[in-house]
TrEMBL record:
EC identifiers of the protein: 2.1.1.148
CDD domains: ThyX (cd20175)
NCBIfam families named in the record: thyX
UniProt cofactor note: Binds 4 FAD per tetramer. Each FAD binding site is formed by three monomers.
Annotated family: Belongs to the thymidylate synthase ThyX family.
Active site annotation, chain numbering: R222
Domain of life: Bacteria
Descriptive protein name: Flavin-dependent thymidylate synthase
Amino acid sequence: MLTPDQLAEIDAARATPRPTLRAVSEGMEAHLYRAHPVLDHGFIRVIDYMGDDAAIVQAARVSYGAGTKHVQNDEGLIRYLMRHWHSTPFEMCEVKLHVKLPVFVARQWIRHRTANVNEYSARYSILDREFYIPAPEQLAAQSTVNNQGRGEVLTGEEAARVLDLLKSDANRAYDHYEAMLSQDGQQGLARELARMNLPANIYTQWYWKVDLHNLFHFLRLRADAHAQYEIRVYAEAIAACVKDWVPLAFAAFEDYRMGGVTLSGKAIAVLKRRLAGEAVTQEASGMSKGEWREFVEVWG
């Protein structure tokens, strides 16, 4: 987590607010700079943000000042924009986050290429001995139905065996990393080379800046129940901040994206046939087994 010096720096920053003419979200101000713990050593922090709900409707109407006369009108327009997949008005809002996360989570995260990223450099600095070690309830075998998911939780001796391997391998790799570094009078390896021996569960940090449209896309995928747990908890922590930042936009996002379902043409046809009283099977639906399974999960 953060060091005492870093926490003191955050307290000092929050103790000296400054007047501004820019749009301010009171909900986001409450999160600004503060670290929200994630996993065993990670966190997310809001470093800066731009815009609020009013900025979205202002951009949509290309208007001045507050952008609208009534909050109800703002909400209706934002829901319309979300419902009809408009993107640019939501791009008027941006947020910059400081994130501490395991490297294997970062490799998933970086696939969202519509953001600006600057990562802690292990070429210049020595990484800390901090590794993500899953809690016992997160140790699970491979799913038998999902090639990229988890199945039954490990218990007893098997859980203990796996935990021991994770801890011992991580510490052994870091011991060798330290032993290889050019320091303490030995020639050793440069940091940029020695780092290649580190495990994927070591923690890194980065600044990540993204607009609200692309952040919603990130949250739709990574805050979903089917997302990998280790990135999902980061997405959930970010979502809690976004909900306070742009409550109207986030409510529309929850309704139309997180709570909504996109139907294929085949799925619509099956629903129409069902409403007409026909009993439709997977074989008669024209869907693959995977599509049918997902359809049945929602519609029964």
